[in-house]
Amino acid sequence: MSAALELHEHDEEEVRPAWSLPAEAVDQIRVPVTLPDQVTREWAWGGSTGAGVRVCILDSGIELDHPLVGRVDRSVAVLRDDGGELQVLDDDEGDLCGHGTACAGVVRALAPDVELTSVRVLGAGYTGGGEIMLRGLAWAIEEGFQVVNMSLSTTRTKYVERLHELADRAYFRRVLLVASAHNMPVESFPWRFASVISVGSHEEDESLTFYYNPTPPVEFFGRGLDLDVAWLGGGTLRCTGNSFATPHIAGICALILGKHSDLTPFQLKSVLYQTASNAEGAT
Amino acid sequence: MSDLEAAVAAGVVGADEAHRALLQATVEVARAIFGAKAASVFLLDEEANELVFEAVAGEGEDELIGMRFPADTGIAGWVLTTRQPLVVDDLSADTRWSRSAAESTGYVPKSMMAVPLLVEERALGVLSVLDRPPETRVRLSEVDLLGLFANQAAIALDLLQRARRAREALAGEGRLAPLARVAGRLEEGERDAAFELLQALDRLLADSSRD
Known about the structure:
The complex is a heterodimer. By secondary structure, chain A is α/β, with parallel strands linked by helices. Chain A has helices spanning 3-13, 41-45, 99-110, 129-143, 160-172, 242-259, 265-275, and strands at 54-59, 74-80, 86-90, 115-120, 147-150, 176-180, 197-202, 211-212, 220-223, 227-231, 235-240.
């Protein structure tokens, strides 16, 4: 079954979108004014530990019992069944390559009380990665995680339309996709979509330092240089790459949502903009 | 040398060597620019799901070409899988990688920069730079520079693979081999009738493709 078909099936079960607004319905859709006149870092995430926020790491799995990662609430993998169909199944393989563990450790360091879920879509024995990634992402959206970290991308244009559809779906469902940008002369996705938060790296060594980029498609720069990230076997590895800048921004988003759980993705992007290290007057 | 042999040599045999030389030049320049002990290009063998050393400059230059390891392990496998560049400053912390690298290559690097080799939609392999000078802190501009080199290496690798496929098709049991042999014989003396037959075949195929 294709991801697109699945989406339509699930549409049946949900609250139907409003296509117009009758006058008498206005009172039913009052929404809170959540952003104050001055959005500060203190307002945005002061005192937050990310408690109550569900973060999904769509990656190579997460090593269980890693001291820098701690509790992993659930681990699933996208696997092919005997009939060749992709299934999302509970998984106890951990992480065979290390990438997902590294990302999870970054999120945990910033937002210590988030609930972490691992969706394994990369790693040993994986071929046809695009389909698997799409299936894993569709599952994460259905599960309604508030933040999905995607330190990965695909260059295959045949997946672009479905990926775009999923990214928009996530945006409207308040599932925030935080995706690694490519710093290479190549077209890849989903980071290029406006519906996600795309992340490149800066060279500073403060985890809460991040920048808004006035010349997208890369919209934010997070800490991505010389990091001691969680690594297989309970250890650490000193690494550089956008793969690790991305969970920094994902972690900051989790902190913000820990304090302001009703923010929509566009509001959250505004909060990031207003609290970015290069925002004039930001405090 | 006949026209045909010359054409084949220029298009396939020579191309193989020229593209390999281009790939070698790329890793040598990458090594020199980063002041590294070694630089290498791995080609992804999709059927075997293995990475193969295709070009090496510096440490291991003579021994490593053709050596293989699983495509989804190690830093190179990581980069290939995630399609993201990666710099690791202390590989000794990754005992798994260090041990397997030591066992297979005899050379254990301390640091590694690696980028995927992407052509259009395909990941062809990985370009890696090993052991930059230990006192220099990596800069993001270096990662960007390596990405540009990767683009060049990817093009060379793509051409090399195309040339190999063309040579396999034209040689021995390849599907186009009879065509190459026939064309070769056409130049052995006067073969007007054979040329006429070939032209007739060409017209026939052109007509049938229009139907």
